[in-house]
Write the C-alpha cells for this entry.
Amino acid sequence: MHQSFFNYRQYRYAVRAGALAVLAILAYVFCPLREPKSGGTWLGYTLGTIGALLIVYLAWYGVRRRTFGSGGSATGWLSAHVYFGFVLMLVATLHCGFQFGWNVHTAAYVLLALVVLSGAWGTYAYARYPSLIIKARGNIGRAELVDEIYQLDGRALRVAAVLPADVHDLLADSIRRTQVGGSIWAMLRGYDESTVLIPAGGGMPSRVVPNQGQKALIEALAGRIAAQADSNEITKMHTLLDIVARKASLVTRLQKDVQLQSLIQFWLYLHLPLCFALLVALVAHILAVFFYW
Amino acid sequence: MRFRVLRWIRSDTATGTRQFREVIVQTRRLTIGRGSDQHLQIADAKVFPNHAVIRSGRGREGAMVIESLTPSGVTVNGRSRVVCTLNPGDEIRVGPAIIIVEDSQKGAPFTLRFRMAEQEGGRLDRLHVLSLSDSGLSKRFWSLMLASGVAAIFLLVPMAAALYQPLRPLLRASAVVPNDALWSPGPLHAAHQFIGSDCNACHTSPFQPIENVQCTNCHTKVEHHVPVTSSDIGLFDQRRCGECHVEHAETPSVVSRDQRLCSDCHDKLNELSPRTQLLNVADFGSDHPDFRVSVLQSSEGAKGLDWTTVRLDVLPGERRTETSHLRFSHTQHLARRGIKGPNGDEVLQCRNCHEPDSSGRLMQPVQMEQNCSRCHSLRFDEKDPTSIVPHGDIEGVYQTLLSHFSRQFLEGDVGSTRRAAISVRRPGGQPGMVLTRDEQFRARDWAEQQSLMAARDLFEKRVCVDCHEVTKLSGRLGIEQWKVEPVKLTQTWMPRAQFNHQAHKTTECLTCHTGATVSKRSNDVLMPDINVCRTCHSGAEDATRLPSDCLMCHQFHLPDRGLFDQQAASESEGNPRSGVIRRMRALQ
C-alpha cells in the first residue's frame, strides 16, 4: 500500500496523537479541580504548557521543510504535523475550559482555530486535488498547454491575415480579451471571464459580450461563413473555426488547471501568515497571564 | 464628450500600410486598464484593472488630462506622471500599450491612436496571471502584517498602558483603543466593577501574584477563622485571599464554594488541632456529625444561678434536654381539639407564640408579656379585673397584694364575718375618722394575712405554678418562703450555623420541629437533627437533592477572631495607595 502522510508507518502519529487526545479528555473530565475549569487552574497550566509546546513543535515543521535531510523523513514530519495539529485544537479548548471573552486569550484561541482550519483545508486539498489536476491537464504540462494556445493564436492570426479586416479584427480582439486567471478570486473560482467585442451590424451597436469557451467568437465566425460567397475564403474560415475550437478546449483545460493549482496552494497563503500571527499572540497570551498574575 | 480611438489592427500584407479600426466612445472619462469593463483594455499583468482615465481638465489642469489611478503612474513622453495635461503628439505608455494623442479639430472628437508595443499573440503566461505567486499575494507580506498587527494590538499597546503611567488615561479612556483590559481573562465580580479598567488598582507589581495587602487596602476589617491568639493560627500561615476568592472567572463569583477548601483541614481536624472541640467533617451528605445543639444550663452560683452555654452530644438512645426552669407542654398548647383561651376554646398555631424577627431569619425570644399573657392572666381575685400581680418580681407581687387588701379593708369592702371578728368601725361611713393605733395594727395584720393567703394560692395552686418551678423554703416567713426558679430560654441553638427561617417559610414548622406535637415537657429539645435536614439537603456533589456545600450554613470569616492578615492590614494603613482607592470609591 502506498505510504502517505495519512497512514505513515501504520498510523504511528495518528495513534500517538489519539493517545494524547484521550489523556487530555480524561484529565479534563476526572481531575479534582476546586475552581471552575479555566486556564488558571493547575490543569489549565498543564494543558496550556502542552499546547504551547505543541505549537512550537508544529511551527518547527515549517523550518524542517526548508532543511533537507535532517531529522527523520519528510512524510513522517508531515504526518505528525497533521495529526498533532488537530489534537492541538482539542488541547487548547480543554486548556481554556470553554471560557471565551474579548481578550488576548480568546484572540490566540481564534487564531489557533483559523490556523488549524486552514491546515485542515490543506489536508483536504492534498488529498483531493492532485488526482484532479492530473485529470484536468491530460498528459500535457502547464508550460506546454500555454505554449500550444500561444501557437494556436499565432496560427489563427496568420490565417485571418488574408481574410477580411473585420474577421481579423474580431479574432484579434477575442485573443486580447481571452481571460485566463487574473485576480485571486478569478483563479480560485475558475470562471471563464473572456469577452469579445462584436462590431456594430444588423441594427445592433458594437458591444462586448461574454466569450465563455470562445462560444461568442465561434458563433460570430459561423455567421460570417454563412454570409461568405468566396469558396476559398469559406475554406479558410473553416480552418480558422477549427483552430478556435481547439483553442477553446485548451483554454478551458488551462483554466481548470489554474483553478486547481491555486486551490491547492491557497490554504498555505492563509496558514502561514495566521501561524505567524498565532506565534505572536501566544507570546502575548503567556506574557499577559503572568504580567498580571 | 466624444473620444475617437484609432486602434492598430495589422499592416496590410500587400502594401505594408497600417490598418486601424475607429471606435467612437461617448463618455466623460475614457478608462484605461486591464479590466474587461475598460474602454481601452490592456491585457497585461503589470496593468491594474483600472489603471488610468483621460478626462477634461479642471481648473488650471489644461483642456485634457490623463490621470493615473494607481501609485505607479503612467508614462507620458518618457516621464512618469500622476496627472498630466495632454497635448497633440504626446506619447502615453501604459504597460505594453502605446497611446498617441492626435491633433484634433475644435468640436471634433478627442482622437487617440492606440497600439500595443508587442503586437497581439503575446504568450498567455506573460499576459495573464496564472498562479497565486504572481498575483501579488505574498505569504511573507501578510505574515509580517498579521504578526505585527497582533503584536501591536495585543502586546505592545497594552504593555505600554501597563508600564507607562502617563499613557494610561489616554489608552484606557475608550473601549475601542487597545489597552491592558485585553489581557483580562474574564469579567470582574459585580462588587469590583467600580474598579473599571484600572488593572493596577490590584495588580501593582508585574509578574507577582496578588498579595493580601491589595485586598486589605479596601477590606480593612476581615476577621480570621480562628482566634488570632490561638496556636491554630499556624495552620493559616502564608494563606492568600486569592486562594478562595478567585477573580476574573468566567462566571463571576468572588467566593470559591468548593468544599474541599474547608475539608482539607476539617476532615482531619483532630490531627491538625488535637485540642479542638470540633468533630471532623468532610461532606454534609455523607460525613457530617449530628447537630450538637447549644443550650443554656444553670448552676448555683454565688449570686443566684449562673448560666452557661453547653453543647449537647448526640448519644444513641439518650434524650437531649435543656433546663430553662419553665414548665411548658407543647402538646397541650398545640392540641387539635383546642385549648381554653380568654374567649373560649381556640386552636393554637406555632406562630401564635413564635414570631420571626424583622429579618425573618430567626425567631424572637418568647416573652410572657407578649406571647403568654393573653391567656395566662395574673389576676388573683376572680371578681376584680384590676387585681393583677406583676410578672417576674416576687416582692412586687407581695406589695401589690398588700396594697390591694389594705385598700379593701379601708373601703370596708370586707365580708361580714371578718368584720365582726376584727370588730372595726366602718371607716367609709365616717369620713375624716382616723384609725386608732390599735386598729391600724389590726388592719395591717388582716391585710398581710389575706395577702399571704392569696400568695399561697398564686405560688402553690394556680397562676405562677402553672409555668414556673416554685419551691417552698423551710424556715422562711412571709413572702420569702417561696422561691421561683429564674427562667432563661435558649435563643441560639446552633450558633455556628446560619439557619434562615425566611428561606424555609414554605415548609410547615412541624416538618422540621417534629417533636412539638408530642412534647409534654419544656426541657425537650425540639431542634431537628441532621437527618431532618438531609431529607432535602444533600452533600455538595449529590444532585439527587439540593447540593449543599459548607458555605450554605457556615462562614469562614468569623466574628471576634481578630484580623485575617494583621501584617497586610497594617501595611495598608501605611500605604498611600489605599487612600487613593478609598478616595476613588468616595467619588463614585
Notes: The first helix of chain B runs from residue 124 to 127. The radius of gyration of chain B is 51 Å. Chain B touches chain A through 65 residues (CB under 8 Å).
